[in-house]
Design a protein that fits this description.
binds L-homoserine, alpha/beta, 6-stranded parallel beta sheet, 24% strand, 451 residues, 37% helix
């Protein structure tokens, strides 16, 4: 697209919740957009196999079609919006659109996390671009921040609460003291969690977003398959309550940190201090914290899911493509994963963190000493050790103990827990949850230079 274009034809493929909201914004608010941006966005096709939702929304019947080929053959269509979801069909549609010389706007994080570099290369071969603001954290313009506002920064770390479903469930567990299954059932009944919530609660959705965000933050090609992922589905209310008593709140964080020459990338339910900047991000909201060498800490907050917030990001991408801004960034920046070196993703054992550990042990002399010896041999320094009285402790001969550690290597902690799990006095598999401290700002002095 060139700056002189004043009209941009669009085909929308997939009219579900986000597609319907996008079509609504592009039709209902088209005059407002034209007044603000000087470009008329002309929605010409809404392609889907089932138009029930489009009809419920009262979208223009003349736009509805099942014929993708007609949309791709239309020379007046410059942009295809892919909102089909999933990987297989979405990839086919995306490749077809790119090969037909159309720019693609997508919200599909799974597709980009798995096949982003290949698709970006196809886009370049065909002289077009892929825009994906809606793929990460819905309505929050975090891709713009990383590719524009923060461009001079050497980013040290990025922490995200990037799954609204998980944040909603965890917030309710903390605030209402209800167990995971009860809260999930309520969230599903209220339409705040999918009937099959696996992609969200397993942490995989957050890892898709982390792959995209970390790639741009560090200018490296991140391998989704090497991201360590743990979800929230195994969390027990008892640990959330013990953490709360220690002054922590539980959050599912997508974490990307530089460590030496490598990157530590993981998705984990972790404890953060109630004073941590991400601690107050509750309910379905998302937030991303980014630490740059010039900016220090910046944080981006908003709704990360839902039709209208996500459609807002889709429309912003369409406008940016129509104005020729995004295609320029896509052509010129060196940050895109198809143009970057593969990231040196460190094994999870190399992560350094503090940890919360809970064990069920025999309540008799010498048990602490046995556990303490294992921790000492693994060079893990214990920060606190408690034997709280908890109802869930199954008998009077047993005790629940809670240990917090100083910063330790995750490999050492795993090894210590495996060894403790084999002690006859330890009666159940120990539970371990990372404790993530607020990242230190590392503002560089004026004399210092990036490599
Ligand atoms: N299912 C996601 C969430 C939104 O709950 O945040 C889409 O990525």
């Amino acid at each position: 697209m060139s700056e002189t274009n004043t009209k941009c034809g669009v085909a929308l493929v997939g009219c579900g919740v986000v597609g319907g909201a996008t079509a609504t914004l592009l039709t209902r608010d088209s005059e407002i957009l034209r007044g603000r941006c000087g470009t008329r966005i002309d929605l010409r096709y809404i392609v889907d196999l089932d138009h029930t939702h489009a009809r419920e929304l009262g979208l223009d019947e003349s736009l509805l079609t099942a014929d993708l080929t007609a949309a791709l053959d239309d020379p007046d269509v410059q942009v295809v919006i892919e909102l089909v979801g999933g990987i297989t069909t979405a990839r086919e549609i995306t490749e077809q659109a790119l090969r037909a010389g159309k720019h693609v706007v997508t919200a599909n994080k799974a597709l980009l996390a798995h096949a982003g570099p290949e698709l970006y290369a196809v886009a370049r071969e065909n002289g077009v671009s892929i825009a994906f603001e809606a793929s990460c954290a819905g309505g929050i313009p975090i891709i713009r921040a990383l590719t524009d506002g923060l461009i001079v920064n050497r980013i040290d770390a990025l922490y995200g609460i990037v799954n609204g479903t998980c944040n909603f469930i965890l917030s309710a567990m903390v605030q209402e003291g209800k167990g995971y299954d009860r809260v999930l059932a309520q969230a599903q009944a209220d339409g705040l969690a999918e009937a099959d919530p696996t992609l969200d609660v397993s942490g995989e959705d957050s890892a898709h977003k982390l792959t995209i965000l970390a790639g741009l933050a560090f200018g490296q090609n991140v391998d989704f398959d090497a991201v360590s992922i743990e979800g929230i589905d195994k969390l027990q209310l008892m640990d959330i309550q013990q953490g709360k008593a220690l002054g922590y709140v539980i959050k599912l964080l997508a974490i990307a940190q530089r460590q030496g020459d490598g990157l530590c990338l993981r998705v984990r339910p972790v404890f953060i201090d109630i004073e941590h900047p991400l601690a107050w991000v509750s309910g379905p909201f998302n937030a991303v914290s980014v630490y740059g060498h010039a900016t220090g800490h910046t944080m981006y907050y908003g709704r990360g899911a839902g039709g209208m917030p996500t459609a807002s990001a889709v429309v912003a991408d369409v406008v940016s493509v129509a104005q020729g801004l995004w295609p320029k960034l896509f052509a010129q920046l060196a940050l895109w994963p198809d143009r970057c070196e593969s990231a040196n993703q460190l094994p999870i054992e190399e992560v350094r963190s503090r940890y919360y550990i809970r064990m069920l042990v025999e309540d008799r002399p010498g048990v602490f000493a046995q556990i303490g010896r294992v921790f000492a041999e693994e060079e893990i320094s214990i920060a606190s050790l408690l034997q709280p009285e908890v109802e869930e402790t199954p008998s009077d001969d047993l005790a629940t103990i809670v240990i917090t550690t100083h910063v330790s290597r995750e490999g050492a902690v795993r090894s210590a827990l495996a060894r403790c799990g084999e002690l006859p006095t330890v009666r159940a598999r120990p539970v371990c949850i990372g404790i993530v401290d607020e990242h230190p700002e590392q503002l560089w002095a004026e004399g210092e230079q990036q490599e």
